[in-house]
Amino acid sequence: MTAVDLSANESAGSSVASATRGADTTPPAVPSGLTATGSVSGITLTWNTNLDADFAGYNIYRSGSASGPFTKLNTSALLTSATFFDNSAVSDVVSYYTVTAVDSAGNESTGSTVASATRAADTSAPSQPSGIGLTTSGSGITIDWSDNSESDFAGYNI
To answer: What pTM was estimated for this model as a whole?
Structure first.
């Protein structure tokens, strides 16, 4: 750096100074407002959106105990929306969840407050078979019926 006066006279250069910008080590804000709601098909998690300028995404963790240990569910990528559906939760077992926020420097917040829910057991029987028809022949009787199209259908007992 040099100094210049009104007559355009310039001083000799100052000594050289250098500085290194420190790495970002500040994690984003802890996610808030986590809720968990169970259903037969899984558990829905929702929370408040993170507003940090360098926000990159969320991690979801689940445990069988409110105090942990917690296992990360989204192992392949950060989540970018403030909702998650856990269809791998075990039925009739309480699952505990916490959410963290991660910034673009890779800093991860501490976990949110823990929320819990139970995936409900499916206690509804499938629809009864319909359209049953019998065809007789010399070699026996053939039974036919309309196919069941329910998503959790497993098979028929005759």
So the answer is: 0.69
**Cα separation of 113 and 34, whole Å?**
7
What is the residue-averaged pLDDT of the chain? 89
Could you read off the pLDDT of 50-100 as tens digits, one per residue? 999 999 999 999 999 999 999 999 999 999 999 999 999 999 999 999 999
CA distance 151 to 65: 31
Tell me the C-alpha distance between 124 and 75, whole Å: 33
Could you tell me the CATH number of the domain that includes residue 99?
2.60.40.10
Nearest CA to 109 out of 52, 67, 65, 70 is that of: 52
What are the tokens at 30?
């802890």
Q: Are 57 and 102 in contact (CB under 8 A)?
A: yes
Residues 42/92/31/33 CA torsion (nearest 10 deg): 90
**Domain assignment present for 151:** no
User: Are the CB atoms for 100 and 34 separated by under 8 Å?
Assistant: no
Tell me which residue range forms the domain holding 112.
Answer: 35-118
Local structure of 9: helix, strand or coil: coil
Q: How many domains does the chain have?
A: 1
